[in-house]
Amino acid sequence: MLAPVPLRAAEDTASAAPVVAMVEISPSESAPLATNKDWQNVPAELNRAQIFEKASFASRELTFTVKQAGLVLLTASWNYEGGGWEDTDNTNRQLLADLMREGWTPVGTMAFRGNDEHVIFRCAANADQVFKIHTRNKTAPFLIKIKSSDAAAVLALPALIPSDRRTLFKHERVNPNDRLGTMNADVIFFRTCEPPFTRDAWIRGMLLREIVRQASSIAARQELNLPTRDTSLRERLQQPAGAINFPLDELVVVQSTYDVEAALFQRRGRIGSQFGTTP
Predict the structure, then answer these.
(1) Domain span including residue 223
(2) pTM for the complete prediction?
C-alpha cells in the first residue's frame, strides 16, 4: 500500500505570530481593501486591511522582504487569464499545495473583478525572509497588510485545509434523507470527461488522462479503504431504487508547457449528468 503524501511539510505555525509583520515591497503604494471596487466578498476580518495592487500589476511574480517577523497575508489565484497561457513558460509557478508546504495556510476566499476567485493565505514569517511567489501568467498574488488589532481575528480563522490533512480525499456521508450524493455509503463513483480539443496548444493522449484517473482511484481505495466504480470502464453503480447519483467528474488538460491541470467536480442537476438507478 502506498503511503499518503502530506499536503504540507510542517505544522501550521500561524498561531505563533504575535504581531503583524513589517514588509518591504515595490511599488509600496497600497489602498483600502474594503472600499476597493476590484474586490468582492471580502471577509469581515479584512475590512480594515490594505492591499498592494500596484506591485502585483507590475510583475507576474510577487516579491517582498520581511523586515520584522510576524503575520503576513496574501491572496492568490490560479484562474486562466487568457492571451497566451500556453505560450508562456510556467515551470516555476507555485500551486496551492506548494504554498502550503512553504508554510502558507489557506483561510478564506474573495473575488477579484467579479468572478476571479482568490484564495486568502496567512503565514508566520521570519525577519529577513524573502518571498517570491508566482501562480499564473499575468497577475501576481496580492500582498495584504492588516492592522495589529485585527491580528487575533485573522489568526482565529479556521484553515480551509487542516494542516494535518494527509489524504487527497475526505469521505463524508450524506444525510440519510438526501437522495442526491457524490457517493453512496460505501462506494466512490467516478466519471472521466473528455475536453473539447479546440486549441492546438493542448497536448492530447489517453495516457495523460489515465495517470490522473488512476491516481484518484488509488487515493480513494488506499486512503479511504473504499471500492470505486468508473464509467470509463463501463462500470455501473449499484444503488437503492429511486436514488439518483451524480458522480465525481474528472477533467484533465495538459498545456504545451506540460502543465497538467486536473479538476474534480460534480455537475449536480445539469442535463446529461444524472445517472439513474441500477437494478
Answers:
(1) 180-265
(2) 0.65
